[in-house]
Amino acid sequence: MGLIRFERSVEKAGFFSPLAGMEYAEQTIEVRRDPLTGATAVSSSELSTKEEMFFGKTDWDHANDLATRSRQGCFFCPEKVFDVTPMYPDEVVEGGRISRGRALVFPNLFPLAAIHAVVTYPEKHSLRPSEFAPDLLEEGLGAAVDFAGRAERAYPATRHLQVCCNHMLPAGASMVHPHFQVFGGEAVPALVQTAWSCSAAFAREHRASYWRTLTDEEKASGERFIGEQAGCVWLAPYAPIGNREVMAVVPGAARVSALGAEQVTALAAGLSRVLAWYEDVGLSAFNFTLHGGPLGGAAGVAGDASGDPIHPVVLRIIARSAFKPDFRTDDYFLQKQLGGELIFETPEAIAATLREGFAGG
Ligand SMILES: [Zn+2]
């Protein structure tokens, strides 16, 4: 048996059910616990076919209409972006903004942390998930990684740094125009701290990296393993924190700025594949976060011979409610106030679907 405990429990809910002609019937509910944090994810025998009722299907005419209406006056489009967006001082970014291929990096006008940059593609006012091609994502993620390194040097007190994305209104995007955000500072966000603390506790107990152990065990069992390329291991997480969640773990990279060109290319290729799959099943809005480990001397290695960081770079991608006129939030009491998520498509089924044609799968 491996070091990682994949716990699940089963509960029954019984009542006289109209689904069974008002006879007494029981439904089976399975609760999974994330092996690192204990976060819960629930699946139910009767809900497994109800994903469309909860998340909807994208109305692309409606999405195209919003894209057209928001094009005029958009701050991120080419005729405005160089005039109305902020610039960094030269000691942070020489020239004020970073251009990399089609991607452009500049400060967020209303920052929520000491480091809060926007990465956008000025020429792309709207993109469907399937239009985030590998080369386009490589330019955007590469620009974010480049900026991350400069930001760490310019602000040595930085303790955390992530690259995040809200795409389309149901995912929390305030701009239609696609963009990512580089987010870092001294005050570590609670969920980031939880992941770091739990990873450190695992490393103390087992003298091994949780994340290296996880990828080794998942590769060995194969159930949730999707593929591996350039040191990036793709998995469907056992207890997801969002719908159709997929993650990539880079066990050897301690921070976002340490990602090499090959790893950025591999992450871009995998991310592109996942986003195209979301669109295939009718979804359109998504979030992703590229997490890094602790900065500022707190990083540390796991204590075994590998030299692996205690918490490496991890990319997590989740689908959100589909964009349509009467879309419903997928963030209600369960997620927002109790902490937990529903599972419709199981992680094992997700891995089986994505493994097909995935590099290294
Ligand atoms: Zn625009």
Description:
This protein has 361 residues and is α+β, with helices and mostly antiparallel strands. It has one domain (51-355): HIT-like (HIT family, subunit A, 2-Layer Sandwich). 30% of the residues lie in helices and 24% in strands. It contains 9 helices and 14 strands. The chain has helices at 51-55, 60-71, 78-84, 134-154, 190-206, 210-221, 261-280, 333-338, 347-355; strands at residues 8-17, 23-33, 40-44, 98-100, 103-107, 115-120, 160-167, 179-185, 225-229, 232-235, 243-250, 286-291, 313-319, 341-342. Strands 4-5-6-8-7-12-13-11-10-9 form a 10-stranded antiparallel β-sheet, sandwiched between helices. Strands 1-2-3-14 form a 4-stranded mixed β-sheet, with no helix packed on it. The relative contact order is 0.16. Zinc ion binds next to loops.
Keywords:
single chain, 361 residues, HIT family, subunit A, four-stranded mixed sheet
Structure in a nutshell:
The chain is α+β, with helices and mostly antiparallel strands. 30% of the residues lie in helices and 24% in strands.
Please give the radius of gyration in angstroms. Answer: 21 Å
Distance between the termini: 24 Å
* Mean pLDDT value: 96
Derived structural class? alpha+beta
Give the assembly state of these chains: single chain
Coarse morphology: globular
Q: Would you tell me which CATH topology applies?
A: HIT family, subunit A
Poorly predicted parts: none
Tell me roughly what share of residues is in helical segments.
Answer: 25-40%
Using the coordinates above, name the CATH class: Alpha Beta
